[in-house]
Amino acid sequence: MKILIIASWYPSPENPLNGIFFQQRAKALARTGCEVSVAVAEVALRLGGRKPGITVCCEEGITEYRYLRRNKTPFWEEGVAKQQISMVRKIYKQVCKDSGKPDVIHLESARCALAAVALAKKEGIPLTYTEHYSGVLNSKPGSFLDRAMRLARETAKHIFLISSAMKRRIEPSEEKCSMLPNATDFSAFALSEPVEPFTFGALAALRKIKGLDTLLRAFAKVHQVHPECRLAIGGDGEERESLLALRKELALDDCVEFCGRIPAEHRDAFFSGKSAFVCSSLTETFSIVVIEAFASGLPVVATKCGGPEDLINDNNGYLVDKGDPDALAAGMLQMIENRNAFDSARIRQDAFLLYNEANIAQKQLAHFERLTAK
Q1: CA geometry: angle at 327 spanning 168 and 228, to 5°?
Q2: For residue range 220-247, what is the model confidence (pLDDT) as tens digits?
Q3: pTM of the predicted model, to two decimals?
Q4: What domain range includes position 62?
Q5: Sheet order of strands, 53-59 included
Q6: 175 pLDDT more than 70
Q7: Shared-domain flag, residues 112 and 198
Q8: 104 and 218 in one domain?
């Protein structure tokens, strides 16, 4: 089967973690024997010395087509989406020339819905859709994102839902949707060995939506009760300086480490040596880092921010209210006090059964085959 994935954002040499779960899912589909192409229509305010046009890269069984052009409608998201219609069309022609007409088009996020829907309708190819963008959860009725999501919802032959929160937002008809969570490569992670002192890990882009200021304020309360406890935060972003200043203000310089950006190949090393993981986000459509923590056998304290409500249960962690340092601190203290109540091997095995890449790819492929059956 030939699959064309239209990705609304995607890893690049400049930002290798941007949309890495799109790339991982594409590779997992390729490992089922499918011929997978990925279309990325990148409309950039600045090219940064890069040459505009289409570049092609083959990696681990998938062929990635990236079309770069300068943005003609700065700061207007719908304008960007309209530019992508012709860009995706040109990529499609190149894909057909290289490997033939795709059997199915899969849209990753409604941010590129205008282009995906236009192509699917013109070529008579079944369109499927998965939404990952947290902005869709909070989009206002009538906004561009809301309209784009509705366009994708009404056009798609099948919708894959990564969380209950996303299902409530999209409101798809039951007959053409199924739950299909994000997945991870469990072979890339090993069980974390118990360590002293008790060390929490957090891994996120340093942005306001990740609630890391709440995490620091919560950890300050935890540290008052357990002064030996430590916190390691992986990631980088625009909030780094303000978070460093808050760490200093809270007198946590000696017990909170900012580890910087963690490349995909080093994530196992980041989880190794941690006692538990914390997701402090204000909004998450899923939270792949929680699954990576489970793959490492770590119990998790997560906020009720969307995705984690589907992931956390009595055997793998605690859920707390979002944006509340007292609630997060209480969950973290409960985790320290009940550290021996969690079975690392069971956490990993339970998560493997639900979120391993091979199983998720096969489920998605089964729907593709149903849609394209003659």
Answers
A1: 130
A2: 999 999 999 999 999 999 999 999 999 9
A3: 0.93
A4: 2-183+357-372
A5: 53-59, 62-70, 35-44, 2-7, 104-108, 127-130, 158-161, 177-179
A6: yes
A7: no
A8: no
